[in-house]
Amino acid sequence: MQDELFAAAADGAADGAAGADESTQKRARGVQPAPSSDDDLALAAALSPHVHLGTSTWSYPGLQGLVWAGRHSESTLSRTGLPAYAAHPLLRAVGIDRGFYKPLAASEFQRYAEQVPAGFRFTVKAPSLVTDALIRNEDGRGQQPNPLFLDAAVAMQDFIEPVIEGLGTKIGALVFQISPLPGGLLARMPEQLDRLHAMLSALSTLPAGVVAVEVRDTAWLTSEFASLLRDTGARYCLGLHPKLPTLAEQLPLLRALWPGPLVARWNLNRLHGAYGYENAEKKYGEFAEMLDPDPETRAELARITRGTAGAGHDCFVTISNKAEGSAPLSVRALAQAVVQGAPQG
């Protein structure tokens, strides 16, 4: 894919909230959406309907006034805050990460799907049961090899099938985030590529959305990896994380897979380093301010999003609070960059 393709103009105006399910008209008791500003409404109308931006979760109390009105506990927001989140004009997607720790039932996915408009999409992480080469203890230390690592049958039974049954057409991206590999497996990358190819080849076609692979080791980022994804119909999940090269350095892999949808997860600001989640959380507090803006990454991500949507492909982009300090503000800034970079007239 050529650079100019990523610079293409996004199509038309969005009406992503149109056709909302009847159930979304009922706001969760006690959790009301924050009033939408005229600027956000106008910005949402200018975004292509192919662009689905969102945060990595909807349950942070500090987003009071940005996403919902009033003060609520994290547990209340986790249970009943999704309809208020989905009412925000710019939030057309959200991540579901909790299934990484324990597989979720189809009924749980269905409950989420019933709370959002028809144009809303979910980015769902696969269980570590199939994406981590190690079985880990509570503090994250690897204890022993995981015999179910990249196991196709487990991936289908515990992830793909429940998501399809529960989310249906509201699937955005199903992300297999492969945890850092132990040294012994890194030394045998052809074996890991073969194992991943076998698993992806066995997965069924989704009713909507895409299967994507996110990694934490640069050893994956090769032409062989790109060929594997292309052969199996999977996408590369652009992982914006200090353990990986910069976005610009990952761009050749996206070009090798062009054309097709974009899946991106902006996880952590590079200034915090590869293991900086805890430091970022302490610094950003309740995630109500953009304390560490990263305009360079944002501008490049906007260019890729604009070009992908302009070519008629869906974009599923979720942003963590630890990317710039406040995920909703990052979403707004990214949306502005996407729209402002489009040719006028």
Automatic annotation (TrEMBL):
Top-level taxon of origin: Bacteria
InterPro entries the UniProt entry points to: DUF72 (IPR002763), UPF0759_sf (IPR036520)
Biased composition (Low complexity): 7-21
Gene3D superfamilies to which the protein is assigned, alphabetical: Protein of unknown function UPF0759
Location of region: Disordered: 1-39
Coiled coil spans: none
Protein name: DUF72 domain-containing protein
Taxon lineage: Bacteria, Pseudomonadati, Pseudomonadota, Betaproteobacteria, Burkholderiales
